[in-house]
Amino acid sequence: MEIIRTASYDLDLSQFDLEVVILMAQSGSQFAQKQLLERFYETTKKQIDRQARARRLQAHDVADAEQEAVFAIDEAIRKYNLHQPITRMKCSFPSYLHTVVEARFKDCIKRLRRNQKHFDYVIQAKDAPAAGRHGDNPGPAQEVEDSEFAERWSRAVDSLSPKSRKLYAALLSGKQTEVIADELHISVRAVQLWKNEMIRELRAVIVD
Questions:
Q1: pTM of the predicted model, to two decimals?
Q2: Is 62 exposed, middle or buried (0-12, 13-18, 19+ CB in 10 A)?
Q3: Using CA atoms, how far apart are residues 68 and 45, in angstroms rounded to an integer?
Q4: Which three-class secondary structure state does DSSP give residue 86?
Q5: Distance between CA atoms of 82 and 26, rounded to whole angstroms?
Q6: Cα–Cα distance between 11 and 14 in angstroms, integer?
Q7: pLDDT tens figures, 55-89
Q8: CA pseudo-torsion sign 171, 176, 179, 184
Q9: What residue segments make up the domains of the chain, in order of their start?
């Protein structure tokens, strides 16, 4: 568990369980937020590009639409429900993000129809930001924020029940739900229910 006690911007979350990273982002970790943005930016941008080509948008309108990628990912992270019932109809985060992108693109088209002038958005997202990489040099304010989050996250992990701590360690090592289920000779559904309980335990402490 030593990795949890390092500054959060030193962690590599690329192989970490997606729903736990989303919980970190929803709980205030800017580092986790940036890692999710980096992870999903290109696929989100490609989805928007395909829709833009289908609509035969002008080049400057395509650029406007592409800027929705960052906003869509941010909205999906904030609104994704980590406490969905474990059923075959459970919506995964990538599927939910796809739906959010569809809705935001439709809204963008409506705006373009009302006003053909180029919109100057606050966040320029045409080029994906290289955020959350080890080569980055976070400023003092970001380091303080990341350090405070790392301490809160560490307390949350320390508060986990022995059963949840065992699962957390498995997820931290990069193991997928199916692998954990196979190793423990239990169903995937049982692992998913187990993970939901672990997330509830973490959330109870980290958002307190």
A1: 0.64
A2: middle
A3: 8
A4: coil
A5: 10
A6: 9
A7: 887 776 777 778 788 889 999 999 999 887 766 66
A8: positive
A9: 2-128+143-206
